[in-house]
Each structure stands twice: as structure tokens, then as C-alpha cells.
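Raw record, unedited: Protein-tyrosine phosphatase, low molecular weight
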Amino acid sequence: MQKTRVLFVCEHNSARSRMAEAFLNSLAGDRHMAESADFDIAPVNPLAAEVMAELGMDITAKESQKVFDLYKSGRIYEFVITVCDESLAEQCPVFPGIVRRCHWSFPDPWNLEGTEEEKLEQTRQIRDKIRETVEKWLADPDCCQLVKP
């Protein structure tokens, strides 16, 4: 059985897209192959890395990928899911083939305010919401919009 290829995209590939990739590969790696990419490379968010490590997941292990490099290389994905704000979702290229696109908006952990402990707790909430959204998507992947080339 061929795995469904899924690409998660956000602005920096430093937190949200990496978390979504890790959750999908962990929860359904037997059926799906998730990758993540960005528009503008940034280091992995340390709060995101910490809260994912609490669940035994390392999101620091791989290099960040640029979404347009993947596009130019001819990668094919059945689903492209943006996890950033609306303005960046609109910038995402339409990949070749018939692709379903989703947009899930989550706060950027880089923009959180408060003490370190407060930011850590807020990042846990983002993490948990991403996991919940991935689980809902797994139950109904047809919720995404179909985009033809």
C-alpha cells in the first residue's frame, strides 16, 4: 500500500509545521508520510522542541526545507496543509497533480508573551490543539479543498 503524502507548511518551519508532521507520522505513519517546509528558514523554536520532547518526539533532528524548493523539485503531495496565518496560506504554491489543500490557523510560538513558564504553557496548548486537529483530519481527510492544476 502506497502512503498518502502530506506536506505541512508554515512561515518558518520552526514549530507548528514540525509538530503537525511529527504527530501525523507518529499517529498514522503506516498510512501517511508527512513532511514539513517553510517560506523563511528560522531555528527550531526551543519551546516547541521542549513540549514535543515531553511526549518523546524530537522535532530538531531534520533540516528545514523551503516550500518552493520542494515545488521546483517536482514533489507530489496529495495534501498540502498550511498551519500559519491566512496571508501565508495564500502564498503557498499549487503543487502538480490533484492536491487537496487545508488551512489550519495556529498561533506562532515565537509571538507568545509572558514569563517563560507562561509561554511554555501556551506552547503546550498549541501543541495539543495541533494534535487534536491532526486526529480530526485523520478521521475525515475529505474536509480539505480539492485544487486541480
